[in-house]
Design goal:
Rossmann fold, two-stranded antiparallel sheet, 6 strands, 7 helices, 32% helix
Length: 211
Amino acid sequence: MASDKQSPGGADPVNDGRGRTDPVLRSEQRVGRDAGLAAPAGAHARGGAYLTPVGVEHEAALSEGIMLTKLDAVVAWGRKNSLWPIPFGTACCGIEFMGVVSSVFDLSRFGAELVRFSPRQADLMIIAGTITYKMGPVIRRIYDQMSEPKYVIAMGVCASSGGFYDNYCTMQGVDKILPVDYYVAGCPPRPESVLQAVIELQGRLTRTKQV
C-alpha cells in the first residue's frame, strides 16, 4: 500500500523503490495537475487536494480554506437556523402543532424542531389555541423569562383575535399582552401555514442587523 510519507531511503511514494508504482495515486496527481493546482515541494496529491507536511503551507490550499464574512451575518445565520420554540397549546391548534413537528411536515428541516418547555432555553413562543384572561399573567411571566432576542407567533384565529369565543372570559387576541411578530390564520391552520411563518421569521433574522 502506498504511503503518504517518504521512505527512509527517500523514495517517491508513487514508486516504492522496488520498481512498483501506485496507479491510483498517480492518477490522482494527474487530476490535480489538470485542475491547474501545482503541488508544492514535499506535498502529495489526493484527488486534487494536497496533503502537506507539518510546517509547509501552500497558497492555493490556504485560499480555499478561508471564508470572509461579517460578524452580523454569522450571528444572523446562527439565529436563523437554531430557533428553539416553546409551544403554549391550549386547544385544537396544539394538536395541529404536533403535526408540524412530526415526520410528515418535519419542522426540523428549518432548524426549529428543538422544542423547549423551559422559557430560559427558548426564543420562539408559539401560542396555539384559545387564551383566557386568567391565563394572561402566566403567559406574560413565561415570555418575560425567555432569552433575548425572542419572538412570538400567534397560531390560529383564537390566539390571533379570540375567534368565535367573543365572551367575558376569552382574550380577544394574545397581542393584548404580548408583542406578536406573526399571525397564522385558520381554525386550525394547516401545518404549511406555520412553516411559512417560521420561514418568514428566518428571512427577517437574515435581513436584520444584529446589535
